[in-house]
Design goal:
The protein is α/β, with parallel strands linked by helices and 166 residues long. The chain folds into two domains: 1-37; 40-142, no CATH class. 33% of the residues lie in helices and 30% in strands. The chain has two helices and eight strands, in the order αββββββββα. An eight-stranded mixed β-sheet has the order 7-1-4-3-2-6-5-8, with no helix packed on it. The relative contact order is 0.15.
């Protein structure tokens, strides 16, 4: 039979292992760690407007997560956003003429990048740049455009009715 001291030592080791597992899990889920660096290749794309896209946002193809956004910067000459994406190595047959779109998960969800494959026989590789991009649709801009058009329509109706009565 185990002594009291050895039982306490085993329980202590078990608690320590559980805390370590929770610590690693918390960092893995939050994405704040580079313990588990995924192998792959880097691809860039330029967008006019990236909306609320963030570093570590998913990169998807057909709804399947194939990578993540690893960096975002501004091109000082064109003033466009340059998005750097890290694609996992098992997805190495993506056509080089693929398009990239920034989409929103749900109505008010987070932004992510969707790659739409095209038909080239050449594939994306380290340092490739996607040429065809579609910027994020910003909900605030769409609402502003709608209100502006509604405002112009109502002012036209007022002038036409006042013009007819005279």
């Amino acid at each position: 039979m185990l002594s009291q001291r050895s039982i306490e030592a085993l329980v202590g080791l078990f608690v320590l292992a559980a805390l370590l597992a929770l610590f690693v899990l918390a960092f893995k889920v939050s994405g704040l760690t580079s313990f588990f660096k995924t192998e792959g290749y880097t691809v860039t794309a330029q967008f006019d407007d990236i909306g609320q896209l963030k570093v570590r946002a998913p990169v998807k193809m057909g709804g399947v997560n194939i990578g993540e956004v690893s960096g975002i910067m501004l091109d000082p000459s064109s003033f466009k956003a340059i998005v750097i994406m890290r694609i996992r190595k098992e997805f190495n047959t993506i056509p080089s003429d693929s398009a990239a779109s920034i989409l929103t998960a749900g109505l008010l969800g987070d932004n992510y990048i969707e790659l739409i494959p095209m038909y080239s026989n050449e594939f994306l590789k380290e340092g490739s740049q996607l040429q065809e991009t579609h910027s994020a649709m910003i909900l605030e801009k769409l609402i502003g455009q709608l209100l502006f058009k509604l405002g112009n329509n109502s002012s036209k109706e007022k002038t036409s009715t006042t013009g007819e009565k005279k």
